[in-house]
Write a structure and sequence with these properties.
heterodimer; A: alpha/beta; Rossmann fold; nine-stranded mixed beta sheet; two-stranded antiparallel ribbon; 11 strands; 25% strand; globular; B: alpha+beta; Phosphoribosyl-aminoimidazole Synthetase, Chain A, domain 2
Chain lengths: 236, 732
C-alpha cells in the first residue's frame, strides 16, 4: 500500500506568479498540489498551505497589504491556529507579515533594485514546518527574485526572534559564512526566513519551488519541500 | 499647437493622403473619421514606406504555421505545439519617458502573443543607447531597464535574454525593442482564419479607456522627435502590469474553454485598429457603439475613445450565446467585459454614440488600403571614406594585454549582469538557460524538448554596410541558437531606422532587407513577422540602421544542450577560419577609436555548415562547451568561456597574422568549442565530414589564461574586469 500523498494547497491571489511553479514542485516532490482561489471561503481538504510568490494586486500599495484581506485568509489563519503548516514564499511571506501571522516586515532592497539570482541560505533551526529534515548549519542554494525583500523588525521584536530561535534561514556564503557581501538585500541579521512560535507558519524570501528540478537550476528547495511534506503527512 | 495647420496635417496625414480618403469615401471625411485614418494610415500602423520592400523577405516553409500579417507569427515545433513569437519597438515613447515607454512595450508585445491564444513563456529585450559617459544616456538606460523589470517581473513572464549595445547615434534616440515568445497547442491557435459569423459580438475586455496615448502611433512613432519632446509626454501610455496579468489569465482561459471566435490586442491606434482589422480580416463590417466603452473620464470625444492607446485592453469576438460565459470568466478575474459592437455583413464600419452615427467608413480602407510608397533611395555620399579607411591594416601600438582588457571591459562586450539580475528570468520554471549565454533555452512543459531564442543586431556592421549588417545579424542569431545545440527554425524582426523620407535611410532599409532575405533563404529561417520602426532620428541625424533579428530554434532534448562554460581538462578547438577582418570591429572602435572599414565577409554556405556541425556535435554529446565568436573575436569568446566556467586555458592561436588581428578579428562563421580528449577524434571526423575548418588551439584548466607568446593573465582578474565594467560606468 502506498503512503498517502499529502495534499498541499497553493493559493492563487490576483497577481500571484509562482503558483503553478509551487504546485509543480509539490508534485515533483511526491505531494499533491491543490489550487486554491483567493475568493474561496474554505481551503478544502488540504494538509498544508503555500502562499506563493508574485505581485498580489500589483503590490502598488505596500506588498501584501491588500492580499491579507482576501477572503481565503480567514481560512488560512484558522488552519494555522489549528497547527496546520502554512508557508509563505516571497510575496506569500510579505502577506503573512502583513496579516500579523509572522513577525517583521519586508521593505525595498538595500540596492533599491529588483534582484534575481541564486543565493545560499543557512538553516538556523530544525524546528519549523519547512526545516524538520535539516539541521542548523545546512547550506541550501536557491534563487531569490524580489524588489522588496529586506527583512526589518523593531529592536524588541528582533531580540525575541533571535532569543526564541524564530529565525529559520539566513543569507550566507557557500560555506555558511555570514557577511554583508552575501546579504543579498540588506536584511537585518541576514534574515531570509522566519517562523512563528509554534513553527507551523514559515515565511521566506528565497524560492524553494524554483530549486527542485536540477534541469533548471539549483536543488536547495528539495530538502525544504521534503520537510514540509513530512510535516504535513504527520498531520494527515 | 505652435502653427495653425489643417487638421489632416496635424494628424500626420499628407495632402495626397487626404485626397485618397476623399476618393475612397466619395466625400470629405469628418474630423472623427480623419482621426481614424490618421492613426491607421500612420507609418507605424500601415507600413506604407516599408511594405514594398518587406514583400521581398522569404516567409514560407513547412515549419511556418502563421506568417506575417497576424498579431504574431507561429511555427510548428512538433508534438502538436505551436510557438508564437514577435518583436516590436517602443523606442519613441522610451526616449521621452524611459520607464513607462519600456514597460508598456513589454505589455504590448505580450498581448500580441496572447491574442494568438498562446501563453507567453519568455521575453527578450534588445536595447541600444548612447555612451554611458553621458548622464542623460545613463538616465535613459537605467529607466528602460527598470521599466522592463517593473512590468515583466510583475506579469510572471521570464525575461531570459536580449542584447545591449552603446553607440553615439543612439543617444538622442535609444532603440528599445522587445520580443515575446509564447506556446499553444497548434490546433488552438487563434488566427484570422477562424470563421466569424454575422452578428458576432465584439467584447472589450480589461482596462477602461482614457486620454492616455492618444496620437501614440501618429505623433510619436511616425515622426522624428524634436526639441519639444517633453510636450509629447502625454502621448506616452502608462502601464498597469497587474491588469495585464489578469488579462493574460482571463484571455487564456477564454481560449482554452473555446469561448472565442477571435481575439485581438489593442495597441497602436487602439479601438480603431482592433475593430477595423477584426472586421476586415473576417471580410465583414461592424457597428461600434462608443457609448458602451468604459471610459476613465467623462466627456471624452469620439476620436479620443477611438484612438486612445490605453493599455491592458483586448477585443474578443464572441458568438452572442457565449457572451454570458465570457462575462463570467472576466468577472472572476476582476476584469471589465463589455460588448461594444457587432460584426455585420458588408464592409462598412459604422461608429455610433448614443444612436447617432459619428463615423462611417469601409473597414478595409482603414486596415488594408492605406497608402504605399516607393520612396526614393540613394546610398549615403559620405560612406565610402569610412569603408576605405580599413583599420585592419592600421599601425597598432597598444600592447595586446591592454587591448584585451580594453575590449573586454567595453560596455558592448562586458557582462550585462547588472541588467539581467533586475529581471525575473526564472518564473514559470522552464528556464534551462537564462541570460548570459549564446541563446536562452526554455523547456516546454511536460517534455524534454526546448526552444532556443536569441536576438542579434550588428550596429557598426550595419552602419558601414547595411546589406552585410543585416545578413550578419541573421547569421549570428542562427549561430547562437545552433551553438547551444538547437536547430534554427524561423525569425521575427524589428527594423529600426531613421526617417524614411530621407533617401539614404530608405537605401539603408532596402539594403538591410536584401541582406536579411539572402541570409534567411540560405539558413532556411523564414520571416514570420515583425515590426518596422522609422523616424528614429532628430533633425539631420539618424540612428544606425538597426535590423534586430529574433531567432527561434528547437532542441529535441534539452539535456543535450551545450553551454559555453569551460571545464578543466578539455581540448579547445577553434572552428572556422580567421581572416584579417577588423573593419567595424569592437577592437577598432575601442582601441583605435575608429568605426570604419569593411565588415567581415559572410559566406552563407560556410555559415550553414558550421551551424550544422554545432547542432550535430550537441546531438551526439561530443562537446563540453561551445561559444560563438562575435564582438571582440576569439579572444573574448575564450575569455567568456573561462569566466563562465571559472576555468582557465592555454592556447596558441594559429596562422601568421599579427597578434591583434588573430585575437580580435571578427571573421564570421566561427566558434570556440571544448571537448574531452577521448572524444576529440570524433569531433575532428565530424568537422572534416561537414567541411568545417578546425584547429586544436590548446587546453582548458587551471587558474591562468595564456595566449602563448602574446600575453597571459588570470581568470580571477579577467572575471573581475568583465563583471565590474558596467556597474563602474553607471556610477558616473
Amino acid at each position: 500500500m502506498s503512503e498517502p500523498r499529502p495534499r498541499v494547497g497553493v493559493i492563487t491571489f490576483p497577481g500571484s506568479l509562482d503558483d503553478r511553479d509551487a504546485i509543480r514542485a509539490v508534485e515533483t516532490m511526491g505531494g499533491r498540489g491543490v489550487p486554491i482561489w483567493h475568493a474561496d471561503a474554505s481551503l478544502g481538504d488540504v494538509d498544508a498551505v503555500i502562499l506563493p510568490g508574485g505581485f498580489s494586486y500589483g503590490d502598488y500599495l505596500r506588498t501584501g497589504a491588500i492580499a491579507r484581506f482576501a477572503r481565503v485568509m480567514e481560512a488560512v489563519a484558522a488552519f494555522a491556529d489549528a497547527g496546520g503548516p502554512v508557508v509563505g514564499v516571497c510575496n506569500g511571506f510579505q502577506i503573512l507579515c502583513e496579516a500579523g501571522m509572522l513577525p517583521g516586515a519586508l521593505i525595498r532592497n538595500r540596492s533599491l533594485r529588483f534582484v534575481c539570482k541564486p543565493v545560499d541560505v543557512r538553516v538556523e533551526t530544525s524546528l519549523s514546518a519547512l526545516t524538520g529534515g535539516l539541521i542548523a548549519g545546512d547550506v541550501l542554494r536557491m534563487p531569490v527574485k524580489h524588489g522588496e525583500g529586506q527583512f526589518v523588525s523593531t529592536e524588541e521584536e528582533l531580540r525575541r526572534l533571535e532569543g526564541d530561535g524564530l529565525v529559520v534561514l539566513r543569507y550566507c556564503g557557500p560555506d555558511g559564512e555570514l557577511d554583508d557581501r552575501h546579504n543579498v538585500n540588506g536584511s537585518t541579521g541576514s534574515i531570509a526566513g522566519v517562523r512563528n512560535e509554534r513553527g507551523n507558519v514559515v515565511g521566506l524570501m528565497p524560492h524553494p519551488e524554483h530549486a527542485v528540478d536540477p534541469d533548471v537550476g539549483p536543488t536547495g528547495g528539495q530538502a525544504l519541500f521534503a520537510s514540509l511534506l513530512s510535516f504535513a503527512a504527520a498531520k494527515v | 499647437m505652435k502653427v495653425e495647420q489643417p487638421l489632416h496635417r496635424a494628424l500626420g496625414l499628407t495632402d495626397d493622403e487626404l485626397e485618397r480618403i476623399r476618393e475612397r469615401l466619395g466625400r470629405d471625411p469628418n474630423p472623427t473619421e480623419l482621426a481614424m485614418y490618421g492613426a491607421m494610415w500612420s507609418e507605424h500602423c500601415s507600413y506604407k514606406s516599408s511594405k514594398i520592400h518587406l514583400r521581398r523577405l522569404p516567409t514560407e516553409g513547412p515549419q511556418v504555421l502563421v506568417g506575417p500579417g497576424q498579431d504574431a507569427g507561429a511555427v510548428d515545433v512538433g508534438d502538436d505545439l505551436a510557438v508564437v513569437f514577435k518583436m516590436e519597438s517602443h523606442s519613441h515613447p522610451s526616449a521621452i519617458e524611459p520607464y513607462q515607454g519600456a514597460a508598456t512595450g513589454v505589455g504590448g508585445i505580450v498581448r500580441d502573443v496572447v491574442s494568438m491564444g498562446a501563453r507567453p513563456i519568455a521575453l527578450l529585450d534588445p536595447l541600444r543607447f548612447g555612451p554611458l559617459t553621458d548622464e542623460r544616456n545613463r538616465y535613459l538606460f537605467e529607466g528602460v531597464v527598470a521599466g522592463i523589470g517593473g512590468y515583466g517581473n510583475c506579469i510572471g513572464v521570464p525575461t531570459v535574454g536580449g542584447e545591449i549595445a552603446f553607440a553615439e547615434p543612439h543617444g538622442a534616440n535609444p532603440t528599445v525593442n522587445v520580443m515575446c515568445v509564447g506556446v499553444a497547442p497548434a490546433e488552438r491557435l487563434v488566427t484570422g482564419a477562424r470563421a466569424v459569423a454575422d452578428g458576432s459580438i465584439m467584447v472589450l475586455i480589461g482596462a477602461a479607456t482614457g486620454r492616455d496615448g492618444i496620437g501614440g502611433v501618429s505623433v510619436l512613432a511616425s515622426r522624428t522627435i524634436e526639441d519639444d519632446a517633453a510636450e509629447s509626454r502625454p502621448s506616452v501610455q502608462i502601464g498597469d502590469p497587474f491588469a495585464e496579468k489578469l488579462l493574460i489569465e482571463a484571455c487564456l482561459e477564454l481560449v482554452e474553454r473555446g469561448l472565442l471566435e477571435g481575439l485581438q490586442d489593442l495597441g497602436g491606434a487602439g479601438i480603431t485598429c482592433a475593430v477595423s482589422e477584426s472586421a476586415s480580416r473576417a471580410g465583414m463590417g461592424a457597428v461600434l457603439r462608443l457609448d458602451a466603452v468604459p471610459v476613465r473620464e467623462p466627456e471624452m470625444e469620439a476620436f479620443e475613445i477611438l484612438t486612445s492607446e490605453s493599455q491592458e485592453r483586448m477585443l474578443a469576438i464572441v458568438a452572442p450565446e457565449r457572451v454570458p460565459a465570457v462575462e463570467d470568466v472576466c468577472r472572476r478575474w476582476g476584469l471589465a467585459c463589455v460588448p461594444i459592437g457587432t460584426l455585420v455583413p458588408g464592409g462598412g464600419l459604422r461608429v455610433e454614440v448614443d444612436g447617432v452615427i459619428v463615423a462611417e467608413v469601409p473597414a478595409r480602407s482603414l486596415a488594408d488600403e492605406g497608402p504605399e510608397y516607393d520612396r526614393p533611395m540613394a546610398p549615403p555620399s559620405t560612406g565610402d571614406g569610412d569603408i576605405d579607411d580599413d583599420p585592419t591594416f592600421a599601425m597598432v601600438t597598444t600592447a595586446p594585454a591592454d587591448a584585451f582588457f580594453g575590449v573586454l571591459t567595453s560596455p558592448n562586450v562586458a557582462s550585462k549582469r547588472w541588467v539581467w539580475e533586475q529581471y525575473d528570468w526564472i518564473v514559470q520554471g522552464g528556464t534551462v538557460v537564462g541570460p548570459g549565454g549564446d541563446a536562452a533555452l526554455i523547456g516546454l512543459e511536460g517534455s524534454v524538448k526546448a526552444i532556443a531564442v536569441s536576438t542579434d543586431g550588428k550596429g557598426r556592421f550595419g552602419h558601414l554596410d547595411p546589406y552585410l549588417g543585416a545578413a550578419h545579424a541573421v547569421a549570428e542569431a542562427a549561430r547562437n541558437v545552433a551553438t547551444v545545440g538547437a536547430t534554427p527554425l524561423a525569425i521575427t524582426n524589428c527594423l529600426n531606422f531613421g526617417n524614411p523620407e530621407r533617401p539614404e535611410v530608405m537605401w539603408q532599409f532596402a539594403e538591410s532587407i536584401r541582406g536579411m532575405a539572402d541570409a534567411c533563404r540560405v539558413l532556411d529561417t523564414p520571416v514570420t513577422g515583425g515590426n518596422v520602426s522609422f523616424y528614429n532620428g532628430s533633425g539631420g541625424s539618424a540612428i544606425w540602421p538597426t535590423p534586430v533579428i529574433g531567432m527561434l530554434g528547437v532542441i529535441e532534448d534539452h539535456r543535450l544542450a551545450v553551454g559555453h562554460a569551460f571545464v578543466p581538462g578539455t581540448f579547445v578547438y577553434l572552428l572556422g577560419e580567421t581572416f584579417a577582418e577588423l573593419g567595424g570591429s569592437e577592437f577598432a572602435d575601442v582601441v583605435l577609436g575608429r568605426i570604419a572599414g569593411r565588415p567581415p565577409a559572410l559566406d552563407l554556405d560556410r555559415e550553414r555548415r558550421l551551424q550544422r556541425m554545432l547542432i550535430e556535435a550537441a546531438a551526439l554529446d561530443l562537446v563540453s562547451s561551445a561559444h560563438d565568436c562575435a564582438e571582440g573575436g576569439v579572444a573574448v569568446a575564450l575569455a567568456e568561456s573561462a569566466i563562465a566556467g571559472g576555468t582557465g586555458f592555454a592556447v596558441t592561436l594559429p596562422g601568421d597574422l599579427p597578434p591583434h588581428v588573430v585575437l580580435f578579428s571578427e571573421s564570421a562563421s566561427r566558434a570556440v568549442v571544448s571537448v574531452s580528449p577521448e572524444r576529440a577524434a570524433r569531433l575532428e571526423e565530424l568537422a572534416s565530414a561537414l567541411e568545417v575548418p578546425f584547429v586544436r588551439i590548446g587546453e582548458s584548466g587551471g587558474p591562468r589564461i595564456v595566449f602563448d607568446r602574446i600575453f597571459e593573465t588570470t581568470v580571477d582578474e579577467v572575471s573581475a574586469a568583465y563583471e565590474e565594467a558596467l556597474p563602474k560606468l553607471l556610477v558616473g
